Amino acid sequence: MPAENASDDPRATGARSVLDSGDVSRVIDRMAHQILEKTGGAADAVLLGIPTRGVALAARLAGRIAIFEPVSVPIGTLDITLYRDDLRLRGVRPLGATVEPAGGIDGRLVILVDDVLYSGRTVRAALDALTALGRPRAVQLAVLVDRGHRELPIRADYVGKNLPTSRQEEVRVQLADVDGADGVFLTDGLYPGERGR
Amino acid sequence: MRHLLSAGDLDLTEALLVLDTAEQLDRAIAGRDVKKLPTLRGRTVVNLFYEDSTRTRTSFELAAKRLSADVINFSAKGSSVAKGESLKDTALSLEAMGADAVVARHWASGAPERLTSWVRGSVINAGDGTHEHPTQALLDAFTMRRRLRGGEGDLEGLHVAIVGDVLHSRVARSNTLLLRTLGARVTLVAPPTLLPLGVERMFGDPVDVSYDLDSVLPTADVVMMLRVQSERMAESFFPSAREYSRRYGLDVRRMGLLPDHAIVMHPGPMNRGMEIAADVADHPKRSTIVEQVTNGVSVRMAVLYLLLGGAE
Asked: Which domain holds residue A106?
């Protein structure tokens, strides 16, 4: 997934900035408005973030929604590690915590939140993880960046930015709560020594 | 981590990883109607048991099944072992069937280690002779951490008294190794005849040893009672069961010597009235004996996940 090694600063590795921090804030505001609009006020909605940056994004969205309308949308965390289909392709992954939103998810409109939508496999795993947690009324998907290259029939209901990419490229999302500042970057996925060949 | 043979193989980081993973897995299925995760789908776990066991075998079986692995139970009784098949030939058959993990219990110390040279899969020591029982130590540490440390971090500064048949106890050995890795202080309490020769030095750094239970209890945060293993005692190690019980059994009076927060553990199966009085074993506040069994499943799920959950 794109945000895996985000500890190194993309600015230092020749990455191209796609959204700056002002853009990210505006995009999140728009997504918050769209959620309110599409759900008719978000009365029975809950936001479920997929670690790591999906959780931060869910909290941001809930915060903005609360500013625009007098509604408090419960937020939770959905760790999908145990449901991944690529566990055997890599070393053992550490597990994260799943935190159910206040009031649970049964009968609610669950909005899954992630930073980047790519192959769709993370979302597939999240849908499985969700089934184990309860039975929502409906499930929607909100992502900050849709970079294309789907491998499964999955689409997002709320998209911050459609970003056409090649498979070699890497999308890095940074959010203030996790990385100290907001921003979306595109790198060529090459090590510095490989560039210009 | 490829095999789990000894609690001493785990350094502090690895030990905490197992405990933290167990905590996450426990929370992932707690309170659910369907206690099942798809994580180890398509993997095969073989329970290879050369010794009688209810708790450990069913615990491993349940742990593997909750992670969706296929489980094969192979016990020496009623199998080709009863017809004289060697451990090696049995192992080679299991290997041919494609076992990803072999959970081995054997009366011979070191048998699981021997298995690692015959099978490609991971080997988990589920108790070998009087040597080790690492998953028991992990579930005990998990239980202590939950009860006394809020389910996180190490066990720095905890004082654990391990009482009874230390000589024959693989539980005592694995626990001593792991508890010291986690920063706890261990005191082994037993009559001299039930302590291995040179026990003070057998765990690297010197370990505290006492022959007097009453003097240890007032400072113990945890008292772990060991089963008197009559099946491993060819000769007599103490004059009579009554005398053992009077000097080293945990009864209600002795339990009263413990600090208020202290807990009482036992790996099971218990000899009620021998090393532990029924009123102590069933004590609602102090006894963690039933909890240990529950926690055992989570800890074994964590071990299976960490050994089988990634690339080979």
From this structure: 23-86+97-168
